[in-house]
Amino acid sequence: MSNYRNNNTQQYAGMFKALSNPNRLQIFLQLTQCCTPGTVCNNKDIEVRYVGDLGADLNVAASTLSHHIKELNRAGLIQIRRSGQNVECWIEPEVLQKLSAFFQAGQEQ
After folding, report:
1. Which residues lie below 8 Å from residue 25, measured CB to CB, with a gap of 6+?
2. What are the structural domains, with CATH classification, of the chain?
């Protein structure tokens, strides 16, 4: 296992723990839609979504949706910002690059 993976085990474990919930995984996947598969997002491609839009297909209470968003943010997977009465969510391109590097390092063994 590479040193890169060893040094960040706790951080990755927190990310994967957050993504282990089906609702949080679905939210994360919705936010990854800014990129076509096999490409890396750049700052002009970052798609901001409102929390209410992300929860439209989940059939969960607003408080549960808020909890899921907070867990994804706490794990460093998404960013959030209040915009008036709305809460915006997005994924920084570096997060996707970091996850990609993690899995690519595993293939090198």
Report:
1. 19
2. 3-107 (1.10.10.10)
